[in-house]
Specification:
Radius of gyration of chain A: 19 Å
Number of strands of chain B: 8
Bound molecules: fe (iii) ion
Order of helices and strands of chain A: HEEEEEEEEHHEEEH
Largest sheet of chain A: 5 strands, mixed
Largest sheet of chain B: 4 strands, mixed
Structural class of chain A: mainly beta
Order of helices and strands of chain B: EEEEEEHHEE
Oligomer: heterodimer
Radius of gyration of chain B: 17 Å
Helix content of chain A: under 10%
Strand content of chain B: 15-25%
Shape of chain A: globular
Number of helices of chain B: 2
Strand order of the largest sheet of chain B: 4-1-8-7
Distance between the termini of chain A: 42 Å
Distance between the termini of chain B: 38 Å
Strand content of chain A: 15-25%
Number of strands of chain A: 11
Number of helices of chain A: 4
Largest interface: A-B, 76 and 74 residues
Structural class of chain B: mainly beta
Chain lengths: 240, 205
């Protein structure tokens, strides 16, 4: 990884997205495109995204600590922020989905064999719709780091997976949010696949004391920017 | 994606990872219409890696116009009522890398345009999502005039057009569409150095 970092620094270029072919993440070796993508102007269908509403998402789905009756174990946190497009416009009424490990670093997934306890009161799955200002908010438990098989003694930094829709289907993306100051950042090939330090720091939430609640939870703030939209906006939209 | 033309820099993507299976796929996610719908088609195929080995941990999403070329803005993709066409579908591939959507053929959104289905590919090991299109083969004139397709070689074009075939497994009204290599935008997808070994031999048909 150090060598790739050095080459990037010497290249003088600015990258903002992960490398798709990043050999230190072994699974990317056979799963990356080998030819350059062909860009094309988006057509009608690509300028829209599916619509989601109250029918799809219940309000309680944004609180991952109340889903199974009992209290899950771990640090209770709120993660909140805004989803904007590349022109700074809020992405309204759109679907946000998250999933994560529990406080011990274990997923409710049959292929997760990490010998850490399952929390019977925590599934780690949440959904919400963004508000008119593009805001989202989840109450959850801070996930633990977990081991994986990429290399000897490999551990993922604690993270929450985020799935996002924009106003155009071409803004669809899935990413991971990290917590500030994680000592595993420098060792994690998935995080480091974003070779530009400023770019990868965009995935790290800020601790925000204004979001924290007295004797209840700690607050993290994380804003997300989707790519620019190609749709023609009305006067009304741009005034927000 | 030049930074000069955008005021804000997009947040980077990351791999979907291995453990999305209990979080993202949902009941009837792959059924945009019911199988009994008179215009229903089965859209299916397999996701391969660069060695031609099926990828068992990939998730696909489609987004398309309805049969008349209208773009749906109806809610209810996650909890389907069985009647409303929302245009969106999501499915996780099975252990053999195979997927199936039940949908309808999209109509052209503008007269003379070649209809296509938008496809997004996510997978463990794929560090960011990939977008591609699945074209329908019927309107050859529209295909010939399509701005994306006309810039491609014959081989590349073939990777984006899904052949249709009627099969005994389906009702007589049902057409199966097979996308052999959903992941090549022509080539904007998973490593496709072994494409030739799959050409003309769509798996799972
Ligand atoms: Fe994870």
């Amino acid at each position: 990884m150090a060598q790739i970092t050095k080459q990037y620094e010497e290249s003088g270029r600015t990258e903002t997205q992960p490398r798709l072919d990043y050999a230190p993440y072994r699974s990317s070796i056979l799963r990356h495109p080998t030819k350059d993508p062909r860009h094309t102007d988006p057509e009608t269908i690509e300028l829209y995204a599916p619509a989601f509403g109250e029918r799809d998402v219940h309000k309680l789905e944004s609180d991952l600590t109340i889903q199974d009756g009992g209290e899950p174990i771990g640090e209770r946190i709120r993660i909140t922020g805004r989803i904007l497009d590349g022109d700074g416009r809020p992405v309204r009424n759109q679907l946000v989905e998250i999933w994560q490990a529990n406080a011990a670093g274990r997923y409710i997934h049959k292929r997760d064999q990490h010998p850490a306890p399952i929390d019977p009161n925590f599934t780690g799955v949440g959904r919400c719709l963004t508000g008119d200002d593009g805001s989202y908010s989840f109450v959850t438990i801070k996930p633990g780091p977990y081991p994986w098989k990429n290399h000897q003694n490999a551990w993922r930094p604690a993270h929450v997976h985020f799935s996002l829709f924009g106003t155009d289907f071409t803004q669809r993306m899935i990413t991971q949010m990290y917590f500030p100051g994680d000592p595993l950042f420098a060792l994690d090939p998935i995080y480091q696949s974003i070779v530009d330090p400023k770019a990868r720091e965009r995935l790290v939430a800020d601790y925000d004391h204004n979001v924290s609640e007295h004797e209840w939870l700690l607050g993290y703030k994380w804003d997300i920017v989707l790519s620019g939209s190609n749709r023609t906006w009305t006067e009304d939209d741009s005034n927000v | 994606m030049s930074e000069n033309t955008q005021r804000l820099v997009p947040t980077p993507g990351q791999t979907i990872g291995p453990f999305y299976g209990y979080a993202l796929p949902y009941e009837n996610g792959e059924n945009l219409v019911d199988r009994s719908h008179p215009g229903s088609v089965r859209l299916h195929g397999t996701v391969y890696d660069g060695h031609g080995v099926p990828v068992p941990d990939s998730m696909l999403e489609i987004w398309q116009a309805d049969e008349n070329g209208n773009v749906s803005q109806e809610t209810g993709s996650l909890i389907r009522d069985g009647y409303t066409f929302t245009g969106f579908g999501r499915v996780a591939v099975d252990n053999e890398g195979h997927y199936t959507f039940t949908t309808v053929n999209p109509g052209p959104t503008e007269a003379g345009k070649a209809p296509f289905i938008c496809l997004t590919v996510f997978a463990r090991g794929l560090l960011n999502r990939l977008f591609t299109r699945i074209y329908l083969p019927e309107d050859t004139e529209a295909l010939a005039n399509d701005p994306l397709l006309s810039g491609l070689s014959e081989d590349e074009r073939a990777t984006l057009v899904a052949p249709a075939k009627r099969t005994a497994r389906c009702a007589s009204t049902c057409t199966c569409r097979v996308t052999a290599r959903p992941c090549s935008w022509p080539t904007r997808g998973l490593n496709d150095q072994h494409r030739s070994s799959h050409t003309g031999k769509p798996p799972g048909g």
